[in-house]
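User: quick one, fold this
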Amino acid sequence: MTVTAVVGAQWGDEGKGRVIDYLAQQADMVIRFQGGDNAGHTVVNEYGRHALHLIPSGIFNPATVNIIGTGCVVNPAALLEEMASLAAAGVCLDNLWISARAQMLMPYHRVLDGLEEAARGKDTIGTTKRGIGPAYADKAARSGLRMGDLLSPEWLEARLDSALQVVNRKLQILGGEPLDGRELYNACLEYRERLAHRIVDTVPMVRTALEQGQEILLEGQLGVMRDLDWGIYPYVTSSNPTAAYAPAGAGLPAGAIDRVIGVVKAYSTAVGDGPFPTELHDEMGERLREMGQEYGATTGRPRRCGWFDGVAIRYASWLNGMTGLAITKLDVLDRFEALHICVGYRLPDGTVVTDSMPDTPWLFQVEPIYEEWPGWMAPTSACRSWKELPENARRYCRRIAELAGVPIAYISVGPERDQMFRVR
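Assistant:
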């Protein structure tokens, strides 16, 4: 296997960072293929605990090439802050590269994000206000700036002046203050000074890695239920976290991917607005949140918690073409006497859906149909193989794999790298 896509199979926050960090110990290259600094991948290893927002989770292996791909939107200020934090922890950044074709997230994108969300009134989307939506909107409108523009100051200045003619009008309409183009341009010159040597055409290095049969990991952000096209629209991100987009965002041929690892928590969580069928609004939901420390890595917002959703995993497995599952946070369920798995949705007319995802208006109205499974009431955090797991834990995981229709590839029983093991 030479190219592996690691994708979120739920609403995001599944633990993709720890899976990438684990797999990257044997990888030659890790490419982040979409998203921005609106979500974080929490990694715990010998360098400490880090929440990565833009930098690929393979950065902790000094032998691994790490690329922020063309499908990303890059906030240079946030990137520099993240780099400084890693450098202070002793992490080598020599193998970090940025695609010249990646979009640049500008300060005005964050301002617009906040103003637009406020203008929605009670009909909010639940954006993190990090500017991701406006940055991708500018990309589609062909008015965005790219990271490679930093390498051509005259071109950059002209592009920025053109963009601000529209941006400042938008700001005034939404009640904001117009921005000073000269101030923004000077900030870009500072970004150029500090990042220019990392901004490259990534196609030659990716092509060479593929042709040489090197191990390449493609790292996605968020999950299928937040996909712009296939998620719970409009409560979605502004890019495509599914495996089908991974080669486009990374700069690979469509047929390059050998396997797709779908990352799932042993239960369900979500951050942001929108339908979430298995959400628990009771003591059990609070217990899941506290046991799993379910707070957003980027915003610190409490995550919505619920039982495992088997309908969502069937949908995610099909769309991503998954070949294996990585089940994370199994240890969080160690002290639950009884567990529930959603195996179907009952629509208002009585119809039961098991293998497709209703559109958003209907998803608000579905009633989850649950199976009850016995807990194992025993610690799993010290387990390092499938055989060491309690029998009821193995049965629970088998049911998840059965619903997904793909085998289990990895299981994580804690945040540390050595608390993940392969299932053969």
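User: anything notable?
Assistant: The chain has three domains: 3-100+198-260, 103-196, 264-422.
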